[in-house]
């Protein structure tokens, strides 16, 4: 199905086209480009113009460029503009303008990608749904998501992130959401802000892009809730709070963590709710409540949404749980891996440790005899001058009392390692690569192992190293 004709793309971007082409998608990366995509030559780590010829050779319908790269054929299909980034934003605005989709924008210090994926899963069974890939939530990710949106979309879910002040409002204005949701505000990206209040004000700027009849959703339980509520009141026609507070329109009453699920009870004003999330985590229950609030605002079938939440699982690297078999010949010779290695800040660390604490190791199956809860934790990045104290404070979390061993990766995690009691201290490594080389020796059958850290800490390599010990994978490769 055609997404952009040459004439439509030119009109949207005020650009000049060569050739008469039609694109079925939009791509910024030749590695994932599909035949028929419009290749956008963004300049990031490298200048995208260097890859235009390669993109066309791979079947791109055309390339969006600000200059004609050397060596192209005279009849190469192009969309030539003054500035590629500005043109991508214009294409996103045009993609948003031509659809009647109901748009939900999601931001938050923790949980925005998981909540976006919950919304995708829930809305997909109630209409044609379009949502951002991975964490495409920045200055190019948001317009790219909108530019990829089919005109006949019913629901769109747009994730909006930030690294510094002033980034969220412009992206929200491009998205023009009918619903703007803030999952929570926590200590993340503190390097760029004076304090948590500054982060809250930046998150609250998502409400500035709301459509005139828009609804603002905010978390009632956090200290910065008044900042969010006041901003919502200024920009939204309707304000809905969700949380455990009595004032919350959608109020979480209780959560029960099980080995592979979370059961929650809540009230949506006067309506009692009982719902299940297909993975353990109190934060997932709260995010699920926010999703049900969105379903309520959209006037959709809440019972269908609740059924879909029960089948939902987090995306890879964000709390996914898998069983790795260490010995195919003996029963129970396995470990449970909780892979949460994509991102980390104090709030998400606390949530992940809660999940680990609620997990049930298996006794009498390994060489240690008693199953253990093991945390392999990498640096939390971008926390500013208080980073050492924030890392050390993890030792005092209630959930940490249920953890048997904590292995620490990176220079910042040294503060936690030194704050831990000797009985809980595991190994300390300067880099993830150092620990990955001996990761298989840190675990035993029956253990539950959490791997978590900021993406830049590279602890995902440790999760991958543990997976290489999975005998099921070896069997599949034979």
TrEMBL record:
Alphabetically ordered keywords of this record: ATP-binding, Cell cycle, Cell division, Cell shape, Cell wall biogenesis/degradation, Cytoplasm, Ligase, Nucleotide-binding, Peptidoglycan synthesis
Cross-referenced InterPro entries: Mur-like_cat_sf, Mur_ligase_C, Mur_ligase_C_dom_sf, Mur_ligase_cen, Mur_ligase_N, MurCDEF_CellWall_CoF430Synth, MurE/MurF_N, UDP-N-AcMur_synth
Gene Ontology MF, one: UDP-N-acetylmuramoyl-tripeptide-D-alanyl-D-alanine ligase activity
Reaction(s) this enzyme catalyzes, per UniProt: D-alanyl-D-alanine + UDP-N-acetyl-alpha-D-muramoyl-L-alanyl-gamma-D-glutamyl-meso-2,6-diaminopimelate + ATP = UDP-N-acetyl-alpha-D-muramoyl-L-alanyl-gamma-D-glutamyl-meso-2,6-diaminopimeloyl-D-alanyl-D-alanine + ADP + phosphate + H(+)
UniProt cross-references to SUPFAM superfamilies, sorted A to Z: MurD-like peptide ligases, catalytic domain, MurD-like peptide ligases, peptide-binding domain, MurE/MurF N-terminal domain
Source superkingdom: Bacteria
Residue ranges annotated for the Mur ligase N-terminal catalytic domain, each copy included: 24-93
Residue ranges annotated for the Mur ligase C-terminal domain, each copy included: 335-454
Cytoplasm found in the keyword field: yes
Record localization: Cytoplasm
Record field: transmembrane: none
Domain called Mur ligase central: residue spans: 106-295
The enzyme's E.C. designation: 6.3.2.10
Family according to the record: Belongs to the MurCDEF family. MurF subfamily.
Its job: Involved in cell wall formation. Catalyzes the final step in the synthesis of UDP-N-acetylmuramoyl-pentapeptide, the precursor of murein.
Name of the protein: UDP-N-acetylmuramoyl-tripeptide--D-alanyl-D-alanine ligase
Classification of source organism: Bacteria, Pseudomonadati, Pseudomonadota, Alphaproteobacteria, Rhodobacterales
